[in-house]
Amino acid sequence: MTAASVAANRTSARARTGGPSDDDNLMEHIAGWALVVVVAMLATQLGLFF
Asked: What b/e sequence results for 9-25 when a residue is b if at least 16 CB atoms lie within 10 Å of its CB, and e otherwise?
């Protein structure tokens, strides 16, 4: 392998990791608030807030 092909292989391997993208923050906020509401409802039903 030449130095150029080794460098190209390294950058292409780092370019895509296969993980989730961070460009959908709205759905993350909605899911977080839904979890807060569910935990609050559960705590209220169990009588933890008196």
From this structure: eeeeeeeeeeeeeeeee
